Every structure is written in C-alpha cells, then in structure tokens.
Amino acid sequence: MARIVGIGACVADTLISVPRYPAEDTKMRAASTKVAGGGPVATGLVAVSKLGVSAGYIGVLSDDNGGLFLKKDFEKYGVSTDNTEIKGGYRSFTSVIWLSAESTSRTCVFDKGDLPPLSLGEGQLAAIAEADILMVDGNELDAAVEAAKHARKNGTKVLYDCGGLYPNVDRLLAHTDIMIPSEEFAMGHTGENDAESAARRLMELYHPEIVVVTQGKRGGILFDGEKVVSYPIYPAEVVDSNGSGDVFHGAFAAGMAYGFDFEKCCHFSSAVSAIKCMGVGARESVPSFEAVKNYMKENGYEL
After folding, report:
1. How far, in Å, CA of 278 to CA of 236, rounded?
2. Is residue 266 part of a domain?
3. CATH number of the CATH domain containing 35
4. Is 303 within a domain?
5. How far apart are CA 166 and CA 256, in angstroms?
6. Distance between CA atoms of residues 107 and 117, nearest Å
7. CA-CA distances (angstroms) from residue 72 to 20, 35, 63, 192?
8. For residue 6, what pLDDT is reported?
9. What is the pLDDT of residues 242-289, one digit of tens each?
C-alpha cells in the first residue's frame, strides 16, 4: 500500500540546456539534451519516494516510446504503477523545455497527446481510501474530483498543487484539504492583488485546513485561517529550475507523512526544492531525506 498516491499529468520532457534564449529564426548550439519524466503530480510522487515515503501513480499512459519511458522512470524511482493503465495506439503527453543558463529560467512548449481520460476502477478507489494523502494537480479533472470526494469520505487528505488556471477547477478546490497555489494562481483565481489577500479569500471560499502560496524566489506564505506566516527560500546555485514547484508539493506531502506541522513542511519543501535546483532534471536531482536534514542544519534550521 502506498501512503501517498496521485492523479495528474505525467509528461515525457525533453530538456535542452542553452546559454541564453535564442532570437527568432536563428540557430544556437545546445550545451546538452536529455529526456526526463515530468508533470506536477508525477514528479511530486517521485520526490515523495526519494524522500523515503511510499508513493503510487494512478493514471493512464500510452504504450508509445514516451509512455513506456514514463512507466520505467516511475519504477526506477520506486513509485508504484500497480494502478496505472497502459493503453495502446495513443500519443503521450510530451514537452520540450529550454533551460537558460543566463536567466536560470525555463520555457516550455507542450503537446498534451490524445490519451483518453482516466476512469477510476475499484482497485484505484481502494488505493485512494487506503492512502494517507491524495495528490492532485487539476489535470484529469473529472477523475480527480471523484477521487477527492472518495478520499475525504475515507479519511485521506487531499493535497492540491494549484498551478494551472484550468476551467472549472473550483470543483476540485471545494474538496481540498491542503491547498498549495502559486501566487499567480491564487491572485488569478480570486482577483485579489496580493498573495495574503488571495490566501484569505481562498480560505473563505473553500475552507481547506491550510493555504500555502508559493512565491518563487521570494519564498512564500502560509495561512491557517488565523495567522499568516512567511517561509524563506534556501540558498542554491540554480542550474535547472524546471519542476521545482512539483518537487515542493511532493516534499510537502512527504513532510506531512513524517508528522511535521505545516510551517515545518514549508521549510522542508523549500529546502528540498533548493537542492533540486542545483542539478539538472527535476526527478533525478531530488535529494534523500538525510541530505535535506543536513543541508537545513547547515543553513540554521533543525528538523
């Protein structure tokens, strides 16, 4: 049984490292190119597993090269695919991502493919009911809403990685316990002009246990319905920022599984994300629990 399961996007990424973003209609030599697994929940689950907590992916993958790579990649990192269905004749979700050394930012172009939507079976529903946490990211929306309702009915916490402002996400927000939106999502969804006002509005609208607004290089804030607390970023020489938010969410779920309070989960997740940014590849650069513990101690924070 996986303690943390997830439903959401699973993407075969092609990462291209470049000195800087090229001008239109020019050529540039890349520093490196590699294929890696991506997707908010999918990468978050890998982070969970690498941090020492059992994880499982619930979803649909193709039998094309991208899908077979993604399945093997999960297995490589110890994420269970027992509740992942493989379907033939479809095109996988893929993306091409440029990583700029000059700006340390990333630019992504993606193709969602044509896989049919996830339809939850008895085994998948049982896995959700038996888990401690269900992670969702707004993809596979109908299945995610059904899963979130089933999770809460069975005492499984729902953690929503709110990144994309997809249509009808309020359906999923209404069944969320741990709400972690980006600042862009929080302000875009609520119409508020700052992160704190947006966090308060999300709490008022959907009544989760906690709202954590991530603010990139500025760290972020958490709001528990009474007080707002800021958390910092941790020092890092950034090589690859792609997937740092996905890793943050997975680390948050892992921190909850370890029994950390929400503020400690924010610090833990921020540290994990910082270490990840110092290597290329969102999944392979996720550190072990002990490495994070030592890194945080070196930076003045004891777990």
Report:
1. 6
2. yes
3. 3.40.1190.20
4. no
5. 27
6. 27
7. 32, 13, 12, 42
8. 98
9. 889 999 999 999 999 999 999 999 999 999 999 999 988 889 999 999
Q: What is the value of pTM for the model shown?
A: 0.93
pLDDT tens-digit readout, 59-78: 999 999 999 999 999 999 99
**Number of domains the chain is built from:** 1
Q: Please name which of 204, 245, 210 lies closest in space to residue 228, comparing C-alpha atoms.
A: 210
Alpha helices in 58-194 (DSSP H): 65-76, 122-130, 141-153, 170-173, 183-190
User: Does residue 36 sit within a domain?
Assistant: yes
- Residue 43, SS3? helix
Question: What are the CA-CA distances from residue 4 to residues 40, 128, 277 (Å)?
Answer: 14, 8, 23
Whether the CB-CB separation of 97 and 13 falls below 8 Å is answered with yes
Q: What pLDDT band is residue 239 in, cutting at 50, 70 and 90?
A: confident
- Per the structure, the complete domain to which residue 88 belongs is given by 4-21+30-298
Question: What's the average model confidence in pLDDT over 101-128?
Answer: 94
Residue 100 lies in a domain: yes
Q: What is the pLDDT of residue 1?
A: 87
Host H or E run for residue 264: helix 262-276
